[in-house]
Amino acid sequence: MRERDRKKLKMPDLVGLREEDAAIALRNAGFKEVPRVRFVESYESVGTVVAQEPIKGNLVDNYGVVVLRVSRRSYLRHLPQIYQTDAALGNDFLREFLWVFQHIQLSVSRKLDQGWHYYDPRETPEEFLPWLANWVALTLDVDWPDIKKRKLISAAAELYKHRGTKRALRDVIRIFLDREPRIEENKWPYPGFRVGVTSSVGVDTIVLPQIDLDHCFMVHIPVGVDEVTEEMVVKIHNLINMEKPAHATYFLQFQTEERRATPQVFMQIGVSSLGVPDLRYDEEETSGDSAPMLPESSVVETPVVVPTAIPAARAARSGGAEPAVPTNKKKSGSASTSRGSHAPSADEEDRNAPGGSEENG
Question: Are 19 and 47 in contact (CB under 8 A)?
Answer without folding.
Answer: yes
